[in-house]
Design a protein that fits this description.
Helix content: 55-70%
Strand order of the largest sheet: 1-2
Order of helices and strands: EEHHHH
Number of strands: 2
Structural class: mainly alpha
Shape: rod-shaped
Largest sheet: 2 strands, antiparallel
Radius of gyration: 21 Å
Distance between the termini: 65 Å
């Protein structure tokens, strides 16, 4: 894997990249397959907003891990590493769901415990 200069912005680009990570322009290395692959890929949802919300309102530790994976999606996508972008998006989604589930479970258990305490059952 080598580096070369982007024709648009002058930034250094990996020889495996399809798009420049600095300006996003398509890197033409003479490979029609590489450029066609960049045009046919659909960028996955990065789940960043949901990760932040689940961190604030549900479960802090799991939400933070979701934010870390969500922040990797766009960087991997711009670098042309589509498999890593999809992997990070799936992991971010999983941690959002886990954080939300843990948060809802804790809220429900707290509500039940408070309700039982009001009835003098506990």
């Amino acid at each position: 894997m080598g580096l070369f200069t982007c024709r648009e912005c002058g930034g250094m680009v990996s020889s495996e990249a399809v798009l420049c990570p600095h300006c996003g322009v398509s890197v033409n290395r003479g490979s029609a397959f590489a450029n066609a692959r960049a045009d046919t890929q659909i960028k996955p949802n990065n789940w960043l907003v949901w990760s932040i919300l689940s961190t604030l309102f549900c479960c802090l530790p799991l939400g933070v891990v979701g934010i870390v994976f969500a922040s990797k999606v766009d960087a991997a996508w711009v670098a042309g590493n589509y498999d890593a972008a999809r992997y990070s998006a799936e992991k971010a989604k999983m941690f959002v769901y886990m954080s939300t589930g843990v948060g809802i479970a804790v809220y429900l258990l707290t509500f039940v415990a408070l309700a039982l305490d009001q009835c003098d059952i506990l």
